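pasting input
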Amino acid sequence: DQQVKQNSPSLSVQEGRISILNCDYTNSMFDYFLWYKKYPAEGPTFLISISSIKDKNEDGRFTVFLNKSAKHLSLHIVPSQPGDSAVYFCAASEMGANSKLTFGKGITLSVRP
Amino acid sequence: NAGVTQTPKFQVLKTGQSMTLQCAQDMNHEYMSWYRQDPGMGLRLIHYSVGAGITDQGEVPNGYNVSRSTTEDFPLRLLSAAPSQTSVYFCASTAGLAANEQFFGPGTRLTVL
């Protein structure tokens, strides 16, 4: 049973437009959510996170929105750049369980010049 | 700081062989974890440690052993390699309760024939 779901395996957007990457979760105990970016042959790198006490967190071009009632979060990238092309993983953890991240399967984002 | 380092980068084993994947971090992080990434599966937690001398199982621990004798090192042992353990392995670390963001190493690509 997958607790973190990224149902769209890929997304293609034009440079300069908005990229919206979606993530759903089923475990009500999750209270911290993270997005990681991964390039081929590299380890994932942390992008942005959000605590369950917030509904929005912004960092430059990246904004994460959390809808707890729907158990849904999304990552917005505005404007999208070709260098954003990568695999994006949504991850979640329970309070205090810092070493235990549950990941989604990832979304491959392609930003067309 | 080197961050999280992993060796080797690539490894080919025959079924039944044993080996140890090395992981080290120089950030004085208490929490360390091992994940494996398989195509279409995202990252799955194998084992984790909340401090020297303390380890616990993750989602897919079978076939793997870990130990944590120092804060810096967290090796992953494959006792008798199987083709199902062909994967990319990532080690990660995080500071502690106030920091859910995990820092990942570059990965070890393991093939078991």
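fyi The radius of gyration of chain B is 13 Å.
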